[in-house]
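Quick question, first post here. What does this chain look like in 3D?
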Amino acid sequence: MSVIIGQKEYFKGIEKIKFEGVDSDNPLAFRYYDENRIVAGKTMKEHLRFAIAYWHSFCGDGSDPFGPGTHHYPWDVASDPRQRAADKADAAFEFITKMGAPFYCFHDVDAIDQSNDPKEFTSRVQYISDIFAKKQEESGVQLLWGTANLFSNERYMNGAATNPNFEVVAHAGAQLKSAIDATIKLGGRGYVFWGGREGYMSLLNTDMKREREHFARMLHTCVEYARRNGFKGKFFIEPKPCEPTKHQYDYDSATVIGFLREFDLMSEFGLNLEVNHATLAGHTFAHECQVASDNGMLASMDANRGDYQNGWDTDQFPTDIYEWAEAMAIVLRQGGLAGGGINFDAKRRRNSTDPADLFYAHIGGMDTIARALLIADKILTHGEMDRLKAARYSSFDSGKGAEFEQGKLKLEDLYQIATEIGEPALISGKQEYLENLLGRFV
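> Answer (accepted):
Ran it through. Tokens below.
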């Protein structure tokens, strides 16, 4: 991978980040992420497929509900939107290649300023995607997935595909078309649908059945268009609860899988799961991963974490080894991510204002997940956790338990068995032992 620096170097004094090992004291080096290290038959780079999020890294200004931005970017000063987009692309690919990340992800409006004229906005997206294509060719960086921002513009205050006004739905379709076209042109491995406002605030003014049907219709329409125009990648839906809409139609893994199954979309889609969204849904990240994996839908991940004292999507960089070790064990058990990668949908804190802070944040996140991959591989190789789980369900492996799983027993049979065996023995779940075992590997 070549380091790409445009006419201006935005991250001066920072060279390409290298792996130096666990004994390194260099804050601008990896201690665990060695992209060429073989783990469970593949390199770390192949397993993790790290991607840089265009929006938080190069657009996020550090603002929060209580104050304006604190991150002031030298690539965001030109008055012309095309020039600003080109400058931002220079900064982005300089950072991505210095980090050594093989992929990036973007929303259309992150790449270039939105216009309310669909023709003008399409022209802008085509312009910046031409620049991205050249940057990709020069650097070897690839597009993991693209997506459209169908939640920020005021027209989407009542949703995009689920909006009660067909004119808004038409605008959403126009925006989706240009974003899909750009993703196809750039060879994106996937395309993400994130229903940021696909939901409702009150049933008093909402026809929920009709809105869900419209959402499904838009997905079918997009899939048909993309396939007809040569898209070979995977479609993803990213579950998200509560924020900003009180009742999101894409609440969590189980909700989305049920939706896809109901509307005959399972064969085209996988899930792109985010840690912070699992927290907001009242789940652990491992829970969301396991639900998706059990249904053959664990395809991609957004890496971040939430703040348990805050009730919104804080998008902090991942640091929880235990959380990620559990998640990576699920990924390894299913043989890897099904078509996606791990995108850092995370942002620096409001008071982290130095350019180097962006590197520290990503280095820490990549090292956390790389270390978790190593731990997960040790857990699976050791085998004790999986043996204990299998043993806990061993009564279904033979005899009457196996017959029950096979659907051979009637309710009367269960009654007869219960009267014959008497009160079952209490069998420990060994939760504390297993938690200690996980701690040993960490």
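The mean pLDDT is 96.
Residues 386-441 form one domain.
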